[in-house]
Design goal:
The complex is a heterodimer.
Chain A lengths: L2 H8 L18 H38 L3 H16 L2 H18 L9 H26 L3 H9 L4 H31 L17 H12 L5 H27 L20
Chain B lengths: L14 H6 L3 H35 L4 H16 L2 H24 L8 E2 L2 E2 L14 H34 L2 H9 L4 H31 L11 H9 L15 H31 L5 H11 L1
Antiparallel strand pairs in B: 1-2
Helix pairs in contact in B: 2-3, 2-5, 2-8, 3-5, 4-5, 5-7, 6-7, 7-9, 8-9
Classes of the chains: A mainly alpha, B mainly alpha.
Chain lengths: 268, 295
């Protein structure tokens, strides 16, 4: 079987298109590359969707945590502590069994017990908490002069937030937020190793990598392939976030621009 | 455990819980909490020493050693840590067996890898097939500790490398002016001062390590996640029937609270440690402390 045929058969296997039966013996390098790559679709899906939705909740949480009002501040603080203080792995388990028991009484929750929705909700809440903390830190380090200037221009409330506070917050938080995005993509590999079932063997990249490692009893081929894909994805994330960073910093003189430095400050 | 537990009347009363929560399998569940704490206690110093060696290698003036150190630091950044966990557990096991195979059975001619099998001679099996149960469990735990240490050693190396570079250069120059050798400067000036710069990163790492402990489950250890799943379920592989429905949600809620407590306690402890280390240091934290005491 040629490699092109393998790609046709298994390229979209993880979303249920193509050959149903996974290869059982005599795994070729091409099969391993194709299937693990196919699994990456799920990692990208979880990562992108959680980032896109989590961003808004994170902003709300940061503003809430920085607020003077106790009724806004306390819930935000507790939410952030709850999701940052416990392991994502346990959160997945808890959420799955929680949805499972809800499903027994309300059939409405059927979709929540499958990974595409249930795990996404957990990742969404989790990344919102982590990014919320980052945004909160940035919110507190906004230069006082910026806000005073906005006041002097007669801005207040929404227009001050939209035009001064929010862009500055994003600009300051962006390097750390890039880091968070990278770790979020890494965290997506946990989904199918916690309780969420991989229905019809439609799993993510690590699911297929460990499938191959179990079958061949040779970890030295599938895991480096997985590492290759993830390093590639990390580079893409850094590049995309770098573009945004450039735009956020475009008004600053070149010397003052915040360099994107990757730090291992946050992980789950 | 209690004498009244034999009385069927306790079923349906609140006292039944005290019987239920002290059954033999529940004790295994509680013991697994100790396993988690043991893992933390063993991994933290080992990972820290791995990290120290890694950081020393990375700032070495001998290029291959420095590449090795930097490569070790860099590799964990791009790849998810659980991929490492899954990889190292098999890779280490096979590595040990392969070395023993080479040493113990030199006249074995067949290749070790045959198709989908990894075959070593009987004497090289780790642990030996005749070994008692506890040896198997200890060996599994030992592999898990090494795996955790390798992964977290790389994180720690990154933090310590940063800490070493953050020590003001003037300090090192002064040491040189006093005629200290490179080795003396490193051990007497750099190492004592780097901790305060490295501590925020290290305390972060400690939090990450705590939150990574449930991954023991993936390494095949009967840890808290394993028992929570077993005990919470209505029917399990080992025990056919439980007197309750699906309680896994509650067991995992308990684990969630356990971890929240662990992080909260660590947060408070690390804050205290930071205060102590900042004492008398030329950092903003140390300055703040000085003002507090003088005011």
């Amino acid at each position: 079987m040629s490699c092109l045929q393998t790609i046709q058969d298994y390229g979209l296997r993880s979303i249920g298109i193509g050959e149903r039966l996974l290869p059982k013996t005599d795994f070729t390098l091409c099969e391993q590359f194709t299937l693990i790559g196919s699994g990456m679709i799920w990692n990208v899906y979880f990562g992108l969707m959680a980032l896109a939705t989590g961003f808004f909740l994170a902003t709300a949480l940061a503003v809430g945590k920085a607020s003077q009002n106790k009724w806004l501040r306390k819930p935000s603080e507790w939410f952030i502590f709850l999701f940052r203080g416990s392991p994502l792995f346990i959160q997945f388990f808890f959420a799955y069994f929680f949805f499972l028991s809800l499903k027994k009484t309300y059939p409405l929750f059927d979709a929540f017990t499958s990974a595409w929705l249930g795990a996404l909700i957990v990742l969404f809440l989790n990344t919102a908490a982590y990014s919320g903390e980052i945004f909160y830190g940035a919110l507190r380090s906004i230069p006082k002069g910026d806000i005073e200037a906005a006041d002097a221009y007669g801005m207040s409330g929404w227009s001050r937030f939209r035009r001064v506070v929010w862009p500055t917050m994003l600009r300051l938080a962006w390097p750390a937020y890039t880091n968070e995005a990278i770790f979020l993509f890494h965290a997506t590999t946990l989904v199918f190793f916690s309780a969420f079932p991989a229905w019809q063997q439609r799993g993510d990249a690590l699911y297929y990598a460990s499938y191959f490692a179990d079958k061949t009893f040779n970890p030295f081929i599938p895991y480096p392939i997985l590492a290759f894909y993830f390093i590639l994805m990390t580079l893409v994330v850094i590049w995309c976030f770098g573009l945004v960073n450039k735009r956020l910093n475009r008004h600053l003189p070149a010397a003052k621009k915040a360099k994107m430095r990757l730090r291992l400050n946050l992980a789950r | 455990m209690f004498s009244y537990c034999t009385d069927p009347d306790t079923l349906g009363t609140l006292r039944w819980f005290s019987c239920y929560l002290t059954t033999g399998v529940h004790w295994s569940f509680y013991v697994s909490f100790l396993k988690v704490l043991l893992l933390l206690a063993v991994t933290a110093p080992v990972a820290l020493s791995f990290g120290f060696v890694g950081a020393m290698a990375a700032r070495s003036h001998f290029p291959p050693l420095s590449w090795l150190g930097k490569g070790y630091i860099a590799i964990v950044r791009g790849v998810p840590d659980i991929a490492f966990f899954l990889f190292f557990v098999i890779a280490l096991d096979q590595g040990f067996e392969w070395i023993r195979h080479k040493v113990l059975c030199p006249d074995w001619t067949d290749p070790v890898r045959q198709g989908n099998d990894f075959l070593v001679c009987q004497a090289a099996k780790l642990p030996l097939g005749t070994a008692p149960e506890w040896v198997h469990e200890t060996y599994g735990f030992f592999l898990a500790v090494i795996t955790f240490s390798i992964v977290f050693g790389a994180f720690a190396a990154n933090v310590l490398f940063g800490g070493m570079r953050a020590v003001p250069h003037a300090q090192l120059e002064t040491a040189e002016a006093y005629g200290m050798t490179r080795r003396q400067t490193f051990w007497r000036i750099l190492v004592p001062q780097m901790w305060v710069y490295a501590l925020p990163g290290l305390s972060n790492l400690w939090m990450v390590l705590i939150k990574a402990t449930p991954l023991l489950f993936l390494l095949g250890i009967e840890d808290i996640v394993y028992w929570a799943r077993e005990l919470g379920g209505t029917k399990t592989s080992k025990f056919t029937q439980y007197p309750h429905g699906d309680w896994r949600m509650w067991y995992f809620l308990f684990l969630l609270i356990f971890y929240l407590g662990m992080t909260r306690v660590s947060e408070l402890g690390l804050e205290k440690l930071m205060r102590r280390l900042s004492h008398g240091q030329a950092t903003s934290g140390g300055e703040l402390l000085r003002k507090e005491t003088t005011a």
